[in-house]
Amino acid sequence: MRRGLIAWDPFRDLARDWEGEFFAGGFVPAADVYQDKDNVIVEMDVPGIETDKIDISVENDVLTVSGSREEKQEVKREDYYRKEVRSGSFSRSVILPMQVKGDEAKAEFEKGVLKIVLPKADEVKPKKIEVKVKD
């Protein structure tokens, strides 16, 4: 029988279990922040969360996403062998790299990923300045 080799780290599970106790009932979703010519885009992993349980706000250059995921009620806590999927509430604030038009932001949810598109404020978009020749 062939088995894969896994590096043993005695502190990995300890840290994960300690973190679970310290932050019990909550979690912090992973986020990617990037830009295109006209927008700042934030993608956040929030699988298993209903869209009506997600709140999004933009204030100045800070995007805040908060929400909650209900714990499965059909499985009793004492029946779990291992529980790593977090439930409860979360709040994640992301400092945006530039000013955006928060009132024009759009959000969509697909396959557990929340995608927020925030148009860049006009003052941060590149402007082309035409040089005129004087006679």
Name its key features:
135 residues, four-stranded antiparallel β-sheet, 1 helix, single chain, three-stranded antiparallel β-sheet, Immunoglobulin-like, 10% helix, elongated
Question: Mind explaining what this structure looks like?
Answer:
The protein has a domain of 94 residues: Immunoglobulin-like. The chain is 10% helix and 34% strand. The protein is built from 1 helix and 7 strands, in the order αβββββββ. The protein has a 4-stranded antiparallel β-sheet with strand order 1-2-7-6, with no helix packed on it. It starts with 9 loop residues before the first helix and ends in a 16-residue tail after the last strand.
What share of the residues lie within helices? under 10%
- Name of the level-1 CATH class of the domain at 30-123: Mainly Beta
Helix/strand/pairing class, anyone? mainly beta
Number of distinct beta strands: 7
The strand order across the widest sheet is: 1-2-7-6
The fraction of residues assigned to DSSP E strands is 25-35%
Q: Low-confidence segments, ≥5 residues, pLDDT <50?
A: 19-24
Large-scale geometry:
elongated
